Amino acid sequence: MSKNIVVAVCGGIAVYKTVDLVSRLKKKGHNVYVMMTKSACEFVTPLTFQTMSQNEVVTDMFAPVSNWEVEHISLATKADVMLVCPATANIIGKIASGIADDFVTTTIMATKAPKVICPAMNNNMYDNVVVQRNLSKLKNDGCYIVEPGEGFLACGTVGKGRLTELENIEDAIEEALCTDKDLLGKRVLVTAGPTREAIDPVRYITNHSSGKMGYEIAKRARIRGAEVTLVSGQVSLRPFSGINIIPVTSAQDMYNAVINEYDHSDIVIKAAAVADFTPKDKSEHKIKKSDSMSLELTKNPDILMNLGEKKAHQVLVGFCMETKELMENARKKLAKKNLDFIVANNLNTKGAGFGTDTNVVTIIDKLGNEQSLDIMSKGDVADIVLDKALEFIRK
Ligand code: PMT
C-alpha cells in the first residue's frame, strides 16, 4: 500500500546511496518527500532528489514556499514514516537533544510518525561515547536505529560506520510502517525450505521447496513485533532483518535445532518440506558409476510429531502438502501430530505450493473449523496464519 515517506538527507558521502533508496521507494509505489540540510546540498543537488522523488525538495526554512504541501508542519503531519538517511553525528545529536534550528530538524520535531535513523559516519565518530549515548537515547524514545555496516570507509579507514545495505533500511521502514505490534513479546519459531539428505559427498536427496512460504511467515511475524527464530534449509532467499536465523541441511539437523528452541517458543509454525527418508549409509567417498545401483533408505525423525508429543504452552501449526486427498490427509495429520491447526496446500492447484509467490490454502483447526482461502500472496497467507495463531494464544 502506498505510504508517505519523508526523507531527511544530511551531509555525508552516503547521500549518493540515498538517491538509489528514494528510487527504490518510488518503485514500490510510495510517495516520497525529500528535505535536505545545507551540508547535504554540498554533496548532491536538490535537483537530483527532486527528479527521483518527483516532488519539490525543501532545503531552506525561510525560502518563500511555492506549495504549502511541503511546508514543514504539512510534511511532519503527512509523514507515515520519517527517515533520516544518512544520519550524521550532528543530526543524531540534535534530534536526541531536541534541537530544532532548520527545516529538517523542525520537521522531525513536529512529526508523530515513527522515525527510522540510519547512521553513517567515520568509525571513530560512530564509536564516540557521545554518539553512542545519543543513539541509545533515540532508541529508548522509540526510534528505529538501522546499524551501520563494517568495512572500508570513504575517509580511508576500515571499521563500523558505512551506511548499511539499502535492503536493511527498506526492512526497517516496513517495520516502522506496521504500527499494530500484536505479536510483541511473543517468540515465534518457523521452519522453512527443503532438507538435503546426503548420499555421498557429492549427491543428495531433496525437494523443490524454495523457502518462500516460511520466510514470509518469519518476516510478517517480525514486522508485527515478534522475536523470530527461523530454522532454514538451504535456500537462496535473504532473511528479513532482525530474524535469528539457524541454517540447517538435513532433517536430523532441523530436528536438533527445532528441539533446542522449542521450550522457549510461544508459536511454532512448520512450513519446511522435510524429507521423510534418508540414505541408510552415507558413502564417505563419491560412489562410482555402475550399471545399476539401489539405495536403502531409513526413516527420518518426524519433527512435528515429536513437537506434538512434547507440547506444553505452545501453539503448534503444521503445513500439509499433498497431490491428492488433501483434506483427508490434512485432518489425519492435524490429529496425529497434536496440532492446533494445519495449513493445507495442494501442489496441483495453480498458484499453490513450491516456488510460487502465491498460495491457495485451507486452514483446519482442532475445533473442527475449516477455512478455504482464495489465491493470495504468501505474505497475506502468512498474516492469516499468524492471526489464527494469536487467536489460539488468547483462548
Ligand atoms: O517453500 P515454498 O517453495 O514456498 O513451498 C511452500 C511449501 C509447499 C513447502 C509449504 O507451503 C508446505 O506445504 N510445507 C509442508 C510440506 C510438507 O512437507 O508437508 P507434509 O505433509 O509432508 O508434512 C506435514 C508437516 O509435518 C509439515 O509441517 C512438515 O514440516 C512436518 N514434517 C514432515 C516430515 C518430517 N519428517 N518432519 C516434519 O516435521
Distance between the termini: 31 Å
Shape category: elongated
Kindly name the structural category: alpha/beta
| Average pLDDT metric | 96
| Helical content class | 25-40%
Quantity of strands, as a count: 21
Q: What small molecules are bound in this structure?
A: ligand PMT
Please give the radius of gyration in angstroms. 25 Å
Low-confidence stretches: none
**Spatial order of strands in the largest sheet:** 12-11-8-13-16-17-19-20
Descriptive report:
By secondary structure, this protein is α/β, with parallel strands linked by helices. Helix content is 35%, strand content 23%. The strands form 6 sheets. It has an 8-stranded mixed β-sheet with strand order 12-11-8-13-16-17-19-20, with helices on both faces. A 5-stranded parallel β-sheet has the order 2-1-3-4-5, with helices on both faces. Strands 6-7 form a two-stranded antiparallel ribbon. Helix 4 packs across helix 6 and helix 10 packs across helix 14. Ligand PMT binds next to helix 10, helix 12 and strand 16.
